[in-house]
Specification:
- The structure holds 2 protein chains of 2 kinds.
- By secondary structure, chain A is an all-alpha fold.
- Chain A is 63% helix and 0% strand.
- Chain A has one domain (34-156, 178-457).
- Chain A has helices spanning 34-42, 49-75, 90-114, 120-144, 171-204, 208-217, 225-258, 270-296, 305-336, 339-350, 354-366, 374-377, 380-407, 422-443, 451-457.
- In chain A, α2 (49-75) runs antiparallel to α14 (422-443), α3 (90-114) runs antiparallel to α4 (120-144) and α4 packs across α5.
- Chain B is built from 6 helices and 4 strands; from the N terminus they run βαβααααβαβ.
- In chain B, α1 (11-24) runs parallel beside α2 (38-44) and α1 packs antiparallel against α6 (144-157).
- Chain B has helices at 11-24, 38-44, 51-76, 89-116, 130-133, 144-157, and strands spanning 3-8, 28-32, 136-141, 161-165.
- A 4-stranded antiparallel beta sheet of chain B has the order 2-3-1-4.
- By secondary structure, chain B is of the alpha+beta class.
- Chain B is 56% helix and 13% strand.
- Classes of the chains: A mainly alpha, B alpha+beta.
- The interface between A and B is large, with 68 and 68 residues.
């Protein structure tokens, strides 16, 4: 399924287990056996006072957002700070932000799966859950942005007596289908990966009601060789389908902008630029979530420093790609000789929006360069702080794309400004509350680290002595307590 | 069908038992493992999974359906702009791609359900919750006259527990 875990061949020297490096066969040396995996991961499912408090805070922010939306429905969309020609603002910025966040999950679970990147095993479930809830959150924003949100279903091609059908040449319709497909496929991928873990929970559950629910959800999974064989194949194909989907979804989102003639938007660099930015922001959010989680759930020996190090390299790479895209934008604006484009970029960098551009370039281009230092890549506190700046920087990237373009179009008499209102800020806060609420509910109901995939990388118990650190009695050989990556 | 179930603590004992059972042809073997293992896959040596066909046909159906919906709707209510073709395949490819992925992914799941024979309402004879936890199980569906030989083989291979079930 996830990673190959064949025993090493006879030529391997008889030595204690090697340090937990991302490319090694064994990545979680402090996890000794299958029983430990079950015990420790299932142990994270018991609610704590801190969890209830966090859930309360999330629901509080969600209620603020709901209250603001009710006020907007009652008063009209005008309370949200839109003034012609800036008719896209915080809602579309936040929509693109959350879709972007949703990209890391499928990247980690599908693309890294196809590349056999071993470090994904410990973090992919968390990233997948994040994806599903982030896309759910993103999907709310186009509806929030409608004057009459109850008519959102007009975007779906359903038979109706007035023969009104969607316009399939419109990027907004492509967007609807891209997001819905992405949500469906991501949720399916998450659920399929969860089936064996649900069976583990079912078999250890003592509460009859919960046991029955888990039996239904696990579809009567028995861990038979037949089931595993077809499961592995289905998982591979789902990963193969998800991979181009990841690339296509944010490309389609970028078409919302690139198909328009507005300066700063009408460029062919947008699809790769958006995809790289989405993956970068998603990895940032993975750090924001996984670093506190491994600390508070006691999972530091599952999500080791080496896992964080490998993910940080990915963040650094995507940051460089994004930085390259920013510089290409400037170059193209200068090289094109198009005075509208040049004027727009001058305004973006030195004009009224200089502060937003400064935040963007500092957070997305300058600060991630610190990840060239191995010491900082292996420092969870720094990674957490950096991830927060990446989240902020990526929100401002979308701000800088949306607002400066609309407020500085072709005719000088159109030039204007934009100021979000309390309704915009409340709905933005509500979106974080909505996302956090679902995530917090998930992590106390279902395992946030994939039990069966972790078992794949834990050496099985053997009767005879083996070469990869398993003793004659089936116990693991001791290894150096200072092994890098075992604990931080 | 009656049979014998053997529970193993160790992977190599399980693989040995499977190989011996296949050699002696005592009955149909089903292996329960807490996690997929290549060693067991190699010992069982089953054929390729049929899920791939579902994926292929689902993907093709999705692409066809995606183009068909967009082209049919354009023809049904034509919006002629500048004498250009009513059905424009270039933008429709984006829609067709999304529908292809959607249908392909969902049909893959259907293929998994059909091939793996799930959902299953009741647990089959021989299954033990230990097999999702840490132990390996070998279920041999055999006739009553082979039961004793199968039990003995499983014990010799290192099974921690062997019992007959029906």
């Amino acid at each position: 399924m996830a990673t190959t875990a064949r025993p090493l061949d006879e030529k391997t020297p008889r030595s204690p287990m090697r340090p937990n490096i991302a490319s090694s066969d064994i990545q979680v040396p402090a996890v000794r056996d299958y029983e430990q995996v079950d015990r420790e991961i299932i142990g994270t499912l018991h609610p704590t006072v801190a969890w209830f408090m966090a859930l309360g805070v999330a629901i509080f922010f969600l209620l603020i957002g709901i209250g603001a939306w009710c006020w907007q429905i009652y008063s009209g969309l005008g309370v949200a700070g839109y003034n012609p020609p800036v008719m896209w603002g915080v809602y579309i910025i936040t929509f693109v932000f959350w879709v972007g966040i949703g990209h890391a999950g499928t990247l980690i679970s599908a693309i890294l799966y196809l590349f056999r990147a071993g470090f994904r095993t410990s973090i992919y479930r968390c990233a997948e859950v994040m994806t599903v809830f982030a896309v759910m959150t993103a999907g709310l924003f186009p509806i929030l942005h409608l004057g009459r949100p109850w008519k959102f279903f007009w975007l779906i091609p359903y038979p109706n007596w007035r023969f009104i059908w969607p316009q399939f040449k419109s990027p907004l319709i492509w967007d609807v289908f891209a997001i819905l497909t992405y949500l469906t496929v991501s949720a399916t991928f998450l659920f399929v990966g969860l089936i064996p873990d649900l069976a583990v929970l079912r078999d250890r559950e003592r509460n009859p009601v919960r046991k029955r629910m888990l039996s239904v959800l696990s579809l009567g999974w028995r861990n038979s060789d037949r089931e595993w064989r077809h499961f592995a194949r289905a998982y591979l194909f789902l990963a193969a389908f998800s991979t181009p989907l990841v690339l296509s979804v944010h490309s389609v989102v970028s078409f919302d902008f690139a198909m328009a003639l507005t300066p700063g938007w009408h460029t062919t660099i947008f699809p790769p630029y958006f995809v790289a930015g989405a993956i970068f922001s998603g990895i940032g959010m993975v750090f924001t979530i996984i670093i506190p989680l491994r600390k508070f759930f006691g999972l530091k020996h599952y999500v080791t420093i080496n896992h964080l190090d490998a993910a940080a390299k990915l963040a650094l790479f995507t940051s460089l790609v994004v930085g390259c895209a920013y510089m290409s934008e400037w170059f193209v604006a200068w090289f094109s000789g198009n005075e509208f484009e040049q004027s727009f970029f001058a305004n973006r960098i030195w004009g009224q929006w200089w502060w937003a551009s400064a935040i963007l370039y500092t957070c997305n281009m300058v600060l991630p360069l610190s990840l060239f230092s191995q010491r900082l890549r292996r420092n969870p506190s720094w990674l957490f702080i950096l991830s927060l700046t990446i989240n902020i920087g990526m929100w401002f990237e979308r701000f800088v794309i949306v607002v400066p373009s609309l407020s500085h179009e072709f005719e000088p008499w159109q030039w204007t400004s934009y100021r979000p209102t309390w309704v915009d800020y409340s709905i933005l806060a509500g979106s974080f509350g909505w996302f956090s609420m679902w995530f917090l509910l998930f992590i106390k109901q279902l395992p946030v680290v994939a039990i069966t995939e972790i078992k794949e990388i834990v050496p099985p118990r053997l009767r005879t002595r083996h070469d990869h650190g398993v003793g004659p009695a089936g116990s693991h050989l001791e290894f150096e307590p200072t092994t890098p990556g075992e604990f931080d | 069908m009656p049979g014998v179930i053997g529970a193993f603590h160790e992977l190599d004992s399980t693989v040995h038992a499977i190989e011996e059972l296949k050699k002696k042809r005592l009955g149909e073997v089903t292996v329960y493992t807490p996690t997929p293992r290549h060693e067991i896959e190699d010992a069982i040596d089953a054929g390729p999974s049929g899920v791939r066909k579902f994926t292929l046909y689902g993907g093709l159906a999705g692409a066809t359906c995606g183009y068909w919906i967009a082209i049919w709707i354009s023809d049904y209510w034509p919006l002629v702009v500048g004498g250009k073709p009513i059905a424009s395949w270039v933008p429709y490819t984006i829609f067709a791609f999304e529908v292809m992925v959607l249908f392909g992914a969902l049909s893959t799941v259907v293929g998994l359900l059909i091939n793996a024979r799930i959902p299953r309402l009741t647990m089959t004879v021989g299954y033990d919750p230990r097999f999702s936890h840490g132990d390996f199980g070998v279920w041999v569906e055999c006739s009553p006259e082979n039961t004793a030989a199968t039990e003995s083989l499983l014990r010799e291979s290192g099974a921690a527990e062997v019992r007959s079930e029906r």
